[in-house]
Amino acid sequence: MKSFSIKQLTFLLTVTLAGVIFSVIFHHPLVIGFLPGYLVLVYLSKQNKQSFKQILQISIRGVYKTRIVILILFLVSFLLPSWYLSGTIDQMVKIALYLINPHYFYVLTFVAAMVFSMILGTTVGTLSAIGVPILGTATVLNLPTAIVAGALVSGAFVGDRTSPFSSAHQLLAHTLELPVKKQWSAMFLTTLIAIVLSMLFYGGFDFFSTEKVNHTVSFEWRELTVLQFIPPIILLLLVLFRLSIIYAFLTSVLSAAIISIVEGGTVSIVASAFWNGIEGLGGGFLHMYELLLFLALAGAYNGLLEELNVIQPYLDKWLKRSTSLTGDTFKILSATLLISVIAANQTLPVILTGRSFLPHWKNKYGEEELARVMGDTTMLFPGMVPWSVLAIMCSTIVGVPILEYLPYALFLWILPLLTLIVSLLKHVQKTKRAAAA
């Protein structure tokens, strides 16, 4: 199989990024901005001796790999309307208002999301389980939803990146051929510093907030009904017991729809809410189908990138020119950011970066150092790229555009800086020891 030339690769990246940036700036559907990049990739694949039949087969395999994500977002479009109609959201907001001290709202939001994510090991599950009541409470208290969403996403990524139950954490350990316990230890220092800084960051917003909230809730526990708790409990339990998150969402949505009908609603009202969403709350298939098309197209694009080995040869050449731990850390940061921007998912950057860099790092620094650097960069960048699948899922669930909450999602962007500093300090220590010897 013929490799892509540097001119071809540059042309592909330019068209892809230009199209996506155009969509983001002018608020056009991402699928429209991403389409020219995919068509260019098809054209270049044809030039590189691939038949249209082969290109189509690879694209279909790529779409098939993203089927779980597509199904999750499809079901997420029904989650908010079903919980709203069943009375679940109203009841959960009342409880959150009663239990959460408004004067420490931001830091408690981060801590709650962090604890849930460490238990569940999933960003999507965490945001789905606690994001709805917390954001609903923030709206009632007139707090900026962008800061609250940033705190939620930050906390959710703690577990997505660090929890032993996280599939992404397991994937990284498997890719680097490293026991999970050693990988967790390698990440511990930067994780701890990032958590402390995040708590100080959100605590600062609580302390210096100009909105001095004095909100009292007239609330009686006997007002609650067990029925409205069933949808979130089902979702939480199924995720906790490691059952497919698809079944968790589906069962939760169906139970909420049934409760809505039992409580006096009609099938036509439920169907209308599923299609159109709820005004002021969101959801609904009409607001989601463009994203679903984009995810399918991104899957096809990623399939061609991976199977046709588009990027790998250039990574291998770049790695041969090694300088130091700091230099190699910056190389990983740059390479994995580029792959995340192109690939628009979390899996490909982990596998491609890990497999490319592992032999070099294994010989020079050890797998643990590579786990630390990738854990602080590769695992987080897909949550910051606006057209990445993971970022889209987070933004969709919290109902806040990623560019609005990203400045407040401190945990995501502080770790790449921390890991560069740690690598620099280790390099300085090593240089001093060598000089002293």
Order of helices and strands: HHHHHHHHHHHHHHHHHHHHH
Q: Compute the number of structural domains.
A: 2
Give the terminus-to-terminus CA distance: 50 Å
Strand share of the residues?
A: under 5%
How confident overall, as mean pLDDT?
84
Catalogue the unreliable spans. none
Q: What global shape is seen?
A: globular
The total of helices stands at: 21
Q: Please identify the oligomeric state.
A: single chain
- Return the structural class: mainly alpha
Rg calc: 23 Å
The percentage helix is: over 70%
Main beta sheet strand tally, sense and closure: none
Q: Kindly state the number of beta strands.
A: 0
Task: Report a brief summary of the structure.
This protein is mainly alpha-helical.
Characterization of this structure:
The chain has two domains: 6-67 and 289-436, no CATH class; 68-287, no CATH class. The protein is 75% helix and 0% strand. It is built from 21 helices and no strands. It has helices spanning 6-26, 30-47, 52-65, 67-86, 88-99, 105-120, 123-140, 145-162, 167-175, 180-208, 230-240, 245-262, 267-276, 289-307, 312-319, 325-343, 347-364, 367-376, 389-398, 402-405, 410-436. Helix 2 (30-47) runs parallel beside helix 14 (289-307), helix 4 (67-86) runs antiparallel to helix 14 (289-307) and helix 6 (105-120) packs antiparallel against helix 7. The radius of gyration is 23 Å and the shape is globular. The model has no long low-confidence stretch (mean pLDDT 84).
